[in-house]
Amino acid sequence: MGYRVVDCETVEPSDDRDCEMRRLSGPAELENVALNRFRAEPGQELPLAYHYHEEQEEVFYVLSGTLSVETPEETYEVGENCLFAVDPGSPQRAYNPADADDAVNVLALGAPPVSGDAVPYDPEDGEE
User: Is the pLDDT of residue 127 over 80?
Assistant: First the structure.
C-alpha cells in the first residue's frame, strides 16, 4: 500500500504554457494517469495547440469558472462542478474566452499517461 498527500500550491507551475499549469502526476507518484491543474485567465488556453490524442482519454473537471472547449462540431461551455470527457482521436482546444469575467480552474486527467501523443489539428482542413 502507498499513500501521498500533495499540496498543489507547492508544485511549481510549468513554464511551457500560456496559462498556469501544475503537473501533479510526478509529485503524487502516479504511473497510470496524467494529472494536471490549470488556472487560465481570460484569453488563455490550456493546451499548447488545437489537438487530439491518439491513445489518451482526457477529462477536464471545472473547479471554478467556465471552460470553453472548441471541437470541430461545436464549442462547449463547461460550468463549475461539471466534467468534459474527450475520447482518443477527438480534436479539441480548451480555453478561457477573452471576454470571460474570471479565471477558470480545471483539474485535467489523461490515461494512459503517454508523452508525445498529442497530434496538432487544423480546423481549417480537418487534418493534422
Answer: no
Kindly state the average pLDDT of the residues 43-60. Answer: 94
**CATH number attached to the domain at 32-120:** 2.60.120.10
Question: Can you give the residue ranges of every domain in the chain?
Answer: 32-120
Please tell me the distance from the alpha carbon of residue 4 to that of residue 128, in angstroms, as a whole number: 39
